[in-house]
Amino acid sequence: MAQRAPGALLDARFVERLERLALLARRPVRGWVAGRRRSRASGHSVEFRDHRAYGAGDDLRYLDWNVYGRTDRLHVKRFVDDEDLCLHLLLDASASMDWGEPSKLGWAARVAAALGFVALASLERVAFGVLRARLEGGWPPARGRARISALFEALASVRGEGTTDLDAALADYARRAPPGGVAVVLSDLLAPRGYERGLAALAERRLEVHVVHVLGPEDFAPSLAGDLRLVDHETGEVRELCVDAETRREYRARLEAFCARAAQYCRAHEIGYYRASSATAPEEMVFGPLRGRLLA
Length: 296
Known about the structure:
The chain is an alpha/beta fold. Helices cover 32% and strands 24% of the residues. Strands 7-6-5-8-9-12 form a six-stranded mixed β-sheet, with helices on both faces. A two-stranded parallel sheet has the order 1-2. A two-stranded antiparallel sheet has the order 3-4. Helix 3 (104-121) packs antiparallel against helix 4 (148-157).
C-alpha cells in the first residue's frame, strides 16, 4: 500500500462532523481524568480525592489554581469515580489487508483515524497496535488533541505485509494492555489459525471489544474465470483450479458462512461485530453501524 499523507486520511468535512461525536462505552470505566465521553452508567460521583502533578494533555478545567498559588506548580484534581476511557485501536496490517481497490488496509486506517480523533478530541486516551503474525509496532496510551497528528502519521505509515496470526498478535497485545477500556479490532479476519482466542484474551482484560470486519469488493465478488493458478498473497502457496459458475456459487456460500460464524461468535461473547466493504465510504461505518454502539 502506498504511503499516505496524514491529511489524506480524513478530509475537513469528515473531521468537522467528528467534532460533534463522543465515545460511548457499555460498561463504566473507573479512572482519574474525566473526558466528555457519554456513559450509560448512572450514579456518577464527583467526590474529590486528591491532587496529582499536571501532565501534557490533562483537562485544564481540573487545574487547582489555589495549589498553584501556594506552590507555583500545576496540579489537577482527582475524583473518586471519574470515568477515564482508553481506546485501543488494533489494526490488521498483514498482506491480505493490502488488497483490493480501494485497499482494505487504507479503509481500515481511515476508520481507525476517525475513532482515534473522536477519543483524543474528547480527552480520552488512545493506544494503537499493528497486527501481523505477532504484535508489531504501535504506541502506548496517550491523551490530548496534540496527539492527533501523531496518530494520523502512525496510521498513514502502516504497510500491509507479512502473514496473519490474529490469535497470537491479539493475545500479545492483551498481555501488555492495561485492564479496562474499549478495543476495536479492524481486520478481514483471514487468519488461518483463527481469531477467537485472541478476542477472548482481550475480553479477559476487561476490555469492551468491537470487531470491524472489512472485506474488499474482490472478496465479495471475485472477477475470476477459467483455468487459473492462484498464489496466496501472504504465504505464496499455489493452487490450480477451474473457476466456473458453480465454483463462484460455492465460494459465495463459504464466504457467507465465514462471516456468519464471525458474527455468531461475537454475539455469543458480547463483542460488537460490524461487517463492511472497503468500497463504501468510511463515513458510512462511523455514522452508521458504529453510531449508537460505540459513538454518540
